[in-house]
Amino acid sequence: MSTNVNHPYFSPNEVAFLCERQRGKMAESQEGKLRLHACAFIEAVSSKIGFPRATIATAQTLFHRFYLFYPWKAFNYHDVAMATLYVSSKMHDTLKKPRDLLMVSYGVRYPELAAKVKHGGGEVEMDPATVDEDRRRLLGIERSVMETICFNFRVRLPFSYVIKVARELKVGKQLTKLAWRLSIDSHRTLAPLQYPPHVLALASILLAALLDSREGPFGVKATDDQRSSHEIVALLGDKGPWEDRFHAQVEDLEGKPPVTILIAAASTTTVATTSPQTPNTPTSPSSYSSYHTPGHTSTSTSSSMARVLQVQPLYTSAQLTQLKIFLRERPHPYPPRDRGPIPGRDNSLFFQEPKTQNGEEETAQSVGGGTVRFLFGPEL
Question: CA 363, CA 359: separation in Å to the nearest integer?
Fold first, then answer.
């Protein structure tokens, strides 16, 4: 009997190792673009369906987690995105049928077909055999997605922490809204897999205060009811009672969370997702199947049509670049904490070369037969 243990968080070294293993010969920059495209795809489908933010954020995090354990070349990221959105809808009790998700996704992936629909609320015409095939693929990936979390459906999101921490720190409404937006953008990155939600919430508030203190669109002033941006930066940049209050340390905010969220905010200015060419005959399964093969679409097919998901930018690229330089050059009296080994963690899962059997590489979640036991946490 083999055992798979749920790991809610990973160290940066573990994430880097797992990403490198699963992307194979793909460039790191290409992997980053695909993750952004997939997150934008999930966002677009969810907005058409009307999913709440919690469902969207959880689906994006599940997507990132999936490709830590499974190779990119083995699964089409559109299929994985729909499977993670389906699992997330179950976790948040906002369930939609797989067919409903697929029909909406066709409208996002193939705008030409959506344009032919006479009524705005109508469905895209697709071959029933193709829809059934995609549905079976989605349900097959669903099992793998649940295995990556060891069937632990506990949800950890930073949004409620942003509101509660902002209220405790006397953060103004405008800065709180900005911090909320930054916490949303953090789910386009791997940050939620590396840091707990309360740390992401604190990092979002700190970054919002840094942005406002330097570029100042809000010009937040200190009053009896709220702190100024400069006061928040000074407070979270030094040790104090807030560390015990929020179960975090200043060293946690001096590491990657602010920088990761900053990069996410910069990436949301314009996210371009390239959709495959709409099949000339949607009723023909053969003409559609080529766009569902694992891997990525060809350049000739992708260049036929590009769909740009425009998101309102928070700041210009120049402003964000200047802030990144400022964060890099400013003194750091409290270096990031060394994240030691986690009790009960089997590091061979992460830092051991994958075994091969019959020419196929084993994934971190693959099982060579027999009974599998899934644990919510390590046995201490």
Answer: 13
